[in-house]
Specification:
alpha/beta; FAD/NAD(P)-binding domain; Polyamine Oxidase, Chain A, domain 2; 8-stranded mixed β-sheet; 5-stranded parallel β-sheet; 17 helices; globular; Zeta_carotene_desat/Oxidored; Amine oxidase; oxidoreductase activity; FAD/NAD-bd_sf
Length: 503
């Protein structure tokens, strides 16, 4: 252990989202000299939300699911209460209401996935189609989030996965593909089977309450990131906005000594990259140093998905049965969600009219449309779900186009994703697209990888105490038994039978 009388190591963290804020916060608390660089004018970037004409807007609404244990623990540590109660949700198609999801934790707990199967209220999907999912449970057992499992399933599309296990065409069309469109943000033929199994298991199949969700009572920036940044600054961390990193500096020993932002250089004893795929690709494109390394060149093979976020203000109150809703079947390759902000956000709770957020994923075909065309399309589709939207008047609207905004877990992408450590031994990675074995997804995964990066820095310099990351809830006993038996059988037969999927 190094003496704490020595100067604190200088750590540069690039990107002030969940991952970057998490790494910065913990390292600052451990006495490191941490500077967090953010390309946008405020922490969180697009995730945070901002004010437009005196009203809050966001680049999409983000849920916080029951298994987000580390984020919920952070909120308690920050002494903030940013979340709504758990909410029920609906799913709509052009034919009307399709599914109602209860609050699963309030119902008698059954072995997974029996509770999810029995308590989810399908309005139209026949039982025989739902039962066709049973053979898929083998893939759920077989996919244990290990490196080997990812390599087995990642080159296969989700559509191929479901077809191979006998899922009926209707169950795929009316249930699984809608989940993919709003969970992995792409149609099944464009989603990795490995990512599909990881997402479905984490959010839906691992434990009965996992699908339960709460929402932020305002923008994430106002409710979470702003108080978090204050705590970071009180701990000695520094946040510098409007700093777009364009290159990395190495010494003659191959160690990072700083990052370049335009004409300015920020010196460092270690660097943590905490940006999304698109942001990392911009940095690599401007950095001859990173381009010279295969692992970073490989990142250029990864993709990201276009998002369209809209917010509409109506002239009257409209009865929306449940505050969060997912929609499918309106466009073959696009999923969308809509939210009753009067029920979710403090700012709009007493508004005289209805305020709705509608977010579209894999929305590339919509981005070229004018704002007026988009608003008309959104009102038309909302009215298909809830007819009262058709006769209401829109008195204000906000449209945000977000090209390449979210990670695309495409088939075959796993081989190009980076782990937390790199060939530059004092450069670390974090974010929702970084390989880790924790098992979490989305915002929780980003935050967890930020904490993992902080722990790697602490291990490198021998200063401070590593943080304890809350693991995902263990598999239930019958799942553990199934995985144990499957592991044994797979190893007994691996030399006799071909693998389930080609490498």
């Amino acid at each position: 252990m190094q003496s704490t009388s020595q100067p604190s190591p200088k750590i540069i963290v690039v990107g002030a989202g969940w991952a970057g804020l998490g790494a910065t916060y913990y390292l600052a608390k451990q006495g490191y000299d941490v500077t967090l660089l953010e390309a946008s004018p405020y922490p969180g970037g697009l995730v945070a939300g901002w004010q437009a004409a005196g009203r809050s807007v966001e680049a999409g609404i983000h849920g916080f699911w029951y298994p987000y244990s580390n984020i919920f623990s952070l909120a308690r540590e920050l002494n903030i209460n940013p979340f709504t109660p758990f909410t029920r949700s609906s799913q709509y198609s052009p034919a009307g209401l399709e599914v109602v999801s209860p609050i699963f934790q309030d119902l008698p707990r059954l072995p997974s996935p029996l509770g999810t199967f029995l308590y989810t209220q399908f309005q139209r999907l026949p039982l025989v189609d739902r039962l066709s999912a049973l053979p898929l449970l083998y893939a759920v057992i077989d996919f244990d989030n290990s490196d080997a499992a990812w390599q087995r399933y990642d080159s296969v599309t989700a559509r191929e996965l479901f077809k191979s296990f006998g899922v009926s065409a209707r169950l795929y069309r009316d249930s699984f593909e809608p989940m993919l469109l709003v969970g992995l943000f792409a149609p099944g033929e464009q989603c990795s089977a490995a990512a599909t199994l990881g997402m479905l298991y984490y959010f839906i199949l691992a434990h009965q309450p996992n699908f339960d969700v709460v929402w932020c009572r305002g923008t994430v920036g106002e409710m979470i990131f702003q108080p978090w940044v204050k705590q970071i600054e009180q701990a000695g961390g520094k946040l510098v906005a409007n700093q777009r990193v364009s290159d990395l500096i190495l010494d003659d020993k191959g160690q990072a000594t700083g990052v370049v932002c335009g004409e300015q250089v920020f010196t460092a004893d270690a660097v943590i990259f905490a940006v999304g795929i698109s942001g990392m690709q911009k940095i690599i494109s401007s950095s001859p140093l990173l381009q010279s390394r295969q692992e970073f060149r490989d990142v250029m093979n990864l993709g990201a998905i276009d998002v369209l976020a809209t917010r509409l203000w109506f002239d009257r109150k409209i009865d929306i049965p449940r505050p969060s809703n997912a929609c499918f079947g309106f466009n073959a390759t696009t999923g969308w969600t809509f939210f009753d902000l009067n029920a979710l956000h403090d700012e709009y709770r007493n508004a005289p009219g209805t305020v709705v957020e509608a977010d579209f994923y894999h929305a590339n075909q919509f981005l070229p449309l004018s704002d007026a065309e988009i608003v008309s399309l959104v009102q038309r589709d909302l009215a298909t779900c809830i007819p009262a939207f058709g006769t209401a008047k829109i008195i204000d609207s906000n449209v945000i186009r977000l090209p390449r905004a979210v990670t695309h877990f495409a088939p075959g992408s796993y081989r190009y994703m980076l782990p937390a450590t790199t060939s530059i031994t004092n450069v670390f990675m974090c974010g929702d697209w970084i390989i880790n074995r924790h098992g979490s997804w989305s915002q929780e995964k980003a935050y967890v990888t930020g904490l993992e990066a902080a722990n790697l820095v602490i291990s490198r310099f021998g200063r401070g105490t590593p943080t304890t990351i809350i693991p995902v809830e263990p598999d239930e006993a019958h799942i553990q038994l199934g995985r144990s038996l499957n592991y044994t059988l797979r190893h007994l037969t691996q030399n006799l039978l071909p693998d389930l999927w080609l490498p």
